[in-house]
Structure formats: C-alpha cells, structure tokens
Amino acid sequence: MILILLGAPGAGKGTQAEKIKVEYNLLHLSTGDLLRAAVADGTELGKLAKDYMNAGKLVPDDVILGIIRDFMKENTGKGVLFDGFPRTVMQAGGLDEILRDEKVRALSLEVDDEQVIKRLSARRVCRECGKVYNPALGINPPKENACECGGEIYQRDDDHAETIANRLKVYHDQTEPVIEYYRGKSQLLIVNGTGTPDEVFGRIREALV
Ligand code: G5P
Ligand code: MG
Fold it and tell me: At a CB cut-off of 8 Å and minimum separation 6, what does 122 contact?
C-alpha cells in the first residue's frame, strides 16, 4: 500500500505517521524531515532548500520528485507512508508516473487555520530524532527539557508567526488542489484531525478498514 498523508502545516501528519507506520508496517518518508536533515548536514540539497523552507515556500517540484524517484527505486515493492508529499498537483502527477500497480490511498487530516496556528506556535521538536512535543497543549511534556533520546528540544525555524502564515497561504493555494486530485481518482479519505492524537488515530483506523 502507498498511503499519502495530506493536511495543513500542523495538522498532525508527523504525529499520526509515527502511529500509522507501526500499525500498518509502512516505511515513513517525510520530505520535510529529510530536507531539515539535509539543511543540518549542510549538503547541496540542504543549501538549496534552506531559504525556501525558512520563507515557508515550497522547494521546487523537480528537486522533490528526484528525491522520491530515488527513494522508490531503493524500496521497490515496499509499503510506503508519505508525509508532506505530494504538495502540488505536479508532484502528485509525478508520483503517479513513478508508481506502477500499487494501491494508493490519500488521507487528508482536516484542521482549521486557528488550530494550526495554536499548535505550531507552541510546537517543540527534538533536533536529533525529530520527536514532536507540545507541552503547552499537554502533548508529550518532556522531562527536564531534553528528549528521551538525549537530543536538544528546539523550536523549528519555520514555526514563527510570519512563516506560519506563509505556510498556510501556500497550503491553501498550492496543496489543497492535491486533495481534489485524489478525490477525482476516488482515492481520497477525509479524517477530522481535531481532538487528541489518540482520538485522531482511532478515526484513521476506521477510515482505513
Ligand atoms: P514539513 O516538515 O512537511 P508541514 O508544514 O507540512 O511541514 P508540519 O509543520 O511538520 O507540516 P505536521 O507534521 O502536520 O506539521 O504536524 P505535527 O508536527 O505532527 O503536529 C504539529 C503540532 O500539533 C505538534 O506540536 C503536535 O504535538 C500537535 N498535535 C499533533 N497532533 C495533534 C492532535 O491530534 N491534537 C492536538 N491537540 N495537537 C496535536 O515541511 C516543511 C517545509 O519543507 C519543505 C517546504 O518548504 C515546507 O514548508 N517541503 C516541501 N517543499 C516542496 N514539496 C514537498 N513535498 C515538501 N515537503 C517539505
Ligand atoms: Mg511534520
């Protein structure tokens, strides 16, 4: 199975991906996590992506599709959970060309903009393992401000008010049409992303039966 997690910034894609990948035995590919690692490592990809990410803009489609093509070549035949990809109709069409007969489902986590802003302004993330925290909302309050892996907990560079607003605009303009793309192919599942992460995961399991 190829499962695509769609949803606004802060909809809970990363949080749910951690649960889904275990339950459904899928490889998890978050293009955002991969790009952040490239920025931290100072690779050519990271140097290219950094300014787009910090401005809340999308990294160019051809760069992203190159990453996906390589990943699928290395993992032919395996079940994959995409988190944060595809983000444009062009990327969705590119993925269809890369895939063969795999069963594809796209699951859209629906959360309104007000909730997104509340979640993202208070989100904290482990610099080492990427684990997501939100002590202000009572989610995974970390012990002594360090991750359980020992990594430093920090605020993402794009989780500041102005960049959050840009990311939301980009989502509405460029990524929402992807929802319609999958609706048109009868591959779309819609899930209410509000409540607690466990409540949302319960809805995802029901949607995936
Ligand atoms: P990313 O990294 O893909 P976004 O903006 O799509 O970034 P983000 O911010 O990672 O998505 P998320 O994964 O949907 O959000 O949400 P999350 O981290 O799990 O949860 C957000 C907060 O809400 C956390 O504090 C969490 O604790 C809380 N929370 C989660 N679930 C719940 C819940 O059920 N209830 C409650 N109450 N709280 C909850 O992309 C970053 C950048 O990389 C580039 C772009 O520049 C992008 O801006 N990029 C791409 N560019 C082009 N194409 C692509 N495919 C790209 N992918 C990445
Ligand atoms: Mg994420």
Answer: 134, 135, 136, 137
